[in-house]
Amino acid sequence: MTRKLTPGRLVIASHNEGKVREITALLGPHGMAPVSAGSLGLPEPEETGTTFAENATIKALASATASGLPALADDSGLDVRALGGRPGVYTADWAERQWFEGAEGRDWYMAMGKVEGLLCELGPDADRAAAFVCTLCLAWPDGETALFEGRVEGSLVWPPRGKLGFGYDPAFLPGGAALTFGEMDPAAKNAISHRARAFDLLVDALF
Ligand code: IMP
């Protein structure tokens, strides 16, 4: 039988504010008291894996063992069909680390532009299909882990649209929708996103 999560403190093993915000909202109804790895001052491990599952496991185990609390990590990214699944596990890296007014951040517009540039090189009829993928790993402090994967299919638009969400949201139009993730309010995105789908599986298994 799968081990269950009991109500109490849980570390969100991420330093990405957008993910922490979405995971906090998704955890809301389940009696957990989430605290982010950043606010606990936990180190950010290097993501040396070559799959979403490996990287999610690295992050969740690092936070669980350092804090003594169960920890939930998300490794996610954009899978562009015509680019053979790229940027995939390197989705964040394509935005490179930059300094903006004294603080470190990433340039998401540049990253979306790189994807668009590669699609343009394939010609005007390039397949614009893409999916967001999310793997969640829950790790307990004793080293046990559980993995859950969610996926949302859609297509890429250019120019990007909307100022909501984070990362590549303005360039992603979920299948059948009129609004990009960057134009949707958070509740609408949370109803259909890759993260929400992985989360539904986690809730079924662990609560
Ligand atoms: P990582 O999981 O920390 O390696 O980063 C994954 C990257 O994928 C994020 O930094 C975002 O750029 C992108 N990403 C993952 N999920 C989303 C999403 O829901 N919206 C937009 N971008 C996302």
The gist of it:
With 207 residues, this protein is α/β, with parallel strands linked by helices. It is built from five helices and eight strands.
What radius of gyration results from the CA coordinates?
Answer: 17 Å
CATH topology label: Maf protein
The name of the CATH architecture is: Alpha-Beta Complex
Total helical segments: 5
- Counting DSSP E segments of at least 2 residues, the number of strands comes to 8
Beta-strand content bin: 25-35%
* End-to-end gap: 12 Å
Uncertain stretches: none
Q: What descriptors fit this protein?
A:
alpha/beta, Maf protein, 207 residues, 29% helix, binds inosinic acid, 8 strands
Descriptive overview:
By secondary structure, the protein is α/β, with parallel strands linked by helices. It has one domain (8-206): Alpha-Beta Complex (Maf protein). 29% of the residues lie in helices and 26% in strands. It has helices at 17-27, 52-67, 108-121, 186-192, 194-206, and strands spanning 8-12, 32-36, 71-80, 97-100, 103-106, 129-139, 145-156, 172-174. The strands form two sheets. The protein has a six-stranded mixed sheet. A hairpin with a 5-residue loop joins strand 6 (129-139) and strand 7. The radius of gyration is 17 Å and the shape is globular. The model has no long low-confidence stretch (mean pLDDT 95). The structure holds inosinic acid. Inosinic acid (IMP) binds next to strand 3.
